[in-house]
Amino acid sequence: MTFKDYLQRANLSERTISAYIWTINYYNQNYDSISKENLLAYKGYLIEYFKPKTVNLRIQAVNKYLDFLQLQNLRLSYVKIQQKNFLENVISNADYKFLKRKLKKDGNMQWYFVVWYLAATGARVSELIKIKVEHVNLGYFDLYSKGGKLRRLYIPKKLRDETQEWLSMKERT
After folding, report:
1. What is the rounded CA–CA span in Å between residue 49 and residue 87?
2. CA angle 38, 39, 45 (to 5 degrees)
């Protein structure tokens, strides 16, 4: 069985398989054997030239290859990624309320609701464009992610009521 067959049996996506194979081919072209010394040298090279997420992706590929070769004792450890515990470029609640009021005052109701829905539901723009009148009437919207997981976005009653009022004015109930 080839490494590619091994990855396909693990039910990995084609993009993941090609990334893993590329990584192993690169390793084999630049290092003469699989040893702890060479693996650590490769890890050092990755850390020097790539971002931590890329380094960990390559390490994951190498570890999968080592599993395939039944050399689990040579597995590499991942690099730690420092997570930022704050968000950048986020407007304050006061700015959000000001923006909403200004949009409503200017009669820009479509953007008024876009801003409100994004903030109130936590929806992404790509998800927001899928919301229909029937979801507003139901009070929630179900989304299915890549892994087949369900994510339910609830629409608060005040937002729902104001949306329904606006839709009836536009004759879209």
Report:
1. 26
2. 90
Q: Quick one: tokens of 120?
A: 């109130």
- pLDDT tens across 54-79, in order? 999 999 999 999 999 999 999 999 99
Supply the pTM of this predicted model.
0.51
The DSSP secondary structure of 134-162, one letter per residue, reads HHHHHTEEEEE-TTS-EEEEE--HHHHHH
Using DSSP's 3-state secondary structure scheme, residue 17 falls into helix
Number of residues that this document lists for the chain = 173
Residue 25 predicted with pLDDT over 80: yes
In the prediction, which pLDDT does 88 show?
Answer: 74
